[in-house]
């Protein structure tokens, strides 16, 4: 027992490798020192994390092993999907990838987000086959508006070849549909005339798209126009891309809020969340791609990095467990030692072991560790918020409204403090305006409160220390403005996901200046 305690104490000491020390090494390499001070393989660049999960951008060292692993995971997930869905290898994907110009360190090494680094790497450029409708010139276009337009234009021109519609995160797919609502008339005009709009000024992108357009195609333009003119856009993805067999994007964690929207737009074709990855390492793949997105688990690939886990079960936090010794039902935070110098690096994700595939554990993504709301003694996690949101969207289901975006914060500027949720709503029928029914919105507030945990419900009473939950409805396009704010700070357009909880005063200001209406729960929770 003494030896075991000594081992655990040693593990705990090693785990507390001071991050400031690691950052010092990273800075030294960025300034031109040899990378062998932290890695046996040459550091070829630095990856910029999205900053939208934990609120802070991180710069992480990377080498070619990272991109080789990413290419392997992408190939593996394609094989897995093809085993479950017949005929997908014969078609193409409308893939919404985006890039921007990378920055460089003083020593000349590139600094950019992980997906963008991959898209600019030889692993992507020299891939065996192009399975996307867009040429690489569209993906590499640094103007994201031009890239989005051209992705949609190429995808619609090649609609008969399309078997899937995909993005890295769900937000990009929802954003693509919103963009199409505003630009379908112009896209149809381009298809009818065979000429790309003059405002597409990136020459390599313009030339590549012109080649795909060929001559004018009035029949195709009329077909697209007919679908887009219809009152409802329910099922618009499968109406425009009639051979679509599945939608692919990350749908776990904070991206789960977009599941109802994608189900609405896709006519309930399978929604596949294919893999679990980060800027630090690849973790694993979803070997059961046709499961419901709410039930996704990821099978870990032990060759990607060296994984150990910090036990996160309530009352048992702190014990470090090897990959081979995790237990079904228990909660863990992964610590990764990778090939580019990170040692027992805390990911900040909380995972639950859901089973095993052969001998490899499968994990369900539960939440980000520090993404919580709290104004008193209660703690409301990302998972709690998603549960409450699922119940509230059932209330909306009977209305003509669709929830397009959500985030939240703990407002302690008032007495008592209370939870504030920002919602962006739109009408299900494209030509209708948003009409807010006070009874429906108040019921959404009450439903969310009733869904929170027992501690919240006990503290939340009429004269207690937690005030009534508030929903603030914002103008359409507000969450795009929020995305642009985070991108201006360095976040990747491809990797962007709306934070479930926001602490940044600047980000909150973007939301506050677009508030249209406010609604409060009108009941106290039962003791």
Automatic annotation (TrEMBL):
This is Auxin-responsive GH3 family protein. PANTHER family: (RAPE) HYPOTHETICAL PROTEIN, GH3 DOMAIN-CONTAINING PROTEIN. It comes from Eutrema salsugineum. It comes from the Eukaryota. GO terms for molecular function: acid-amino acid ligase activity. Keywords: Ligase. Belongs to the IAA-amido conjugating enzyme family. GO terms for cellular component: cytoplasm. Residues 383-505 form the GH3 C-terminal domain. Residues 298-368 form the GH3 middle domain.
């Amino acid at each position: 027992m003494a030896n075991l305690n000594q081992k655990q104490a040693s593990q705990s000491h090693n785990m507390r490798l001071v991050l400031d020390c690691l950052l010092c090494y990273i800075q030294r390499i960025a300034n031109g020192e040899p990378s062998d001070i932290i890695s046996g393989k040459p550091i070829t660049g630095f990856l910029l994390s999205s900053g939208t999960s934990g609120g802070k951008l991180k710069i992480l060292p990377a080498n070619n092993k990272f991109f080789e692993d990413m290419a392997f995971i992408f190939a593996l997930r394609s094989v897995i999907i093809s085993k479950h869905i017949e005929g997908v290898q014969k078609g193409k994907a409308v893939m919404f990838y985006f890039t921007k110009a990378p920055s460089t360190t003083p020593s000349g090494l590139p600094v950019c987000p992980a997906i963008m680094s991959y898209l600019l790497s030889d692993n992507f450029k020299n891939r065996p086959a192009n399975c996307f409708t867009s040429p690489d010139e569209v993906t590499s276009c640094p103007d994201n508006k031009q890239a989005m337009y051209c992705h949609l234009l190429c995808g619609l021109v090649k609609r008969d070849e399309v078997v899937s519609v995909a993005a890295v995160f769900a937000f990009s797919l929802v954003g693509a549909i919103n963009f199409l609502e505003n630009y379908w008339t112009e896209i149809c005009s381009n298809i009818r005339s065979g000429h790309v709009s003059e405002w597409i000024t990136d020459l390599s992108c313009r030339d590549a798209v012109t080649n795909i357009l060929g001559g004018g195609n009035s029949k195709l333009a009329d077909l697209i126009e007919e679908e887009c003119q219809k009152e409802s856009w329910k099922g618009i993805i499968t109406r425009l891309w009639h051979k679509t067999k599945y939608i692919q994007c990350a749908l776990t964690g904070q991206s789960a809020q977009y599941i109802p929207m994608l189900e609405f737009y896709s006519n309930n074709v399978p929604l596949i969340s294919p893999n679990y990855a980060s800027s630090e390492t690849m973790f694993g793949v979803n070997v059961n791609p046709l499961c419901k997105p709410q039930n996704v688990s990821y099978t870990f690939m032990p060759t990607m990095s060296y994984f150990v886990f910090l036990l996160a079960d309530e009352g048992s936090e702190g014990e470090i467990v090897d990959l081979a010794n995790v237990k079904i039902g228990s909660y863990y935070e992964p610590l990764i030692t990778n090939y580019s110098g990170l040692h027992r690096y805390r990911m900040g994700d909380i995972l639950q072991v859901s089973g095993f595939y052969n001998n490899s554990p499968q994990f369900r993504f539960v939440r980000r560790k520090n993404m919580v709301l709290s104004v008193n003694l209660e703690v409301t996690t990302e998972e709690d918020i998603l549960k409450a949101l699922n119940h509230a969207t059932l209330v909306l289901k009977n209305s003509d409204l669709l929830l397009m975006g959500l985030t939240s914060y703990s407002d302690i500027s008032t007495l008592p403090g209370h939870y504030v949720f920002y919602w962006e709503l739109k009408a299900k029928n494209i030509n209708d305006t948003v009409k807010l029914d006070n009874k429906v919105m108040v019921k959404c507030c009450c439903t969310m409160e009733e869904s929170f945990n027992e501690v919240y419900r006990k503290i939340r009473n009429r004269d207690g220390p937690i005030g009534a939950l508030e929903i603030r409805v914002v103008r359409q396009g507000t969450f795009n403005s929020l995305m642009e704010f985070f991108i201006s700070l360095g976040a990747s357009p491809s990797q962007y996901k709306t934070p479930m909880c926001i602490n940044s005063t600047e980000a909150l200001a973007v939301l506050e200046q677009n508030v249209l209406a406010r609604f409060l729960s009108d009941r106290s929770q039962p003791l």
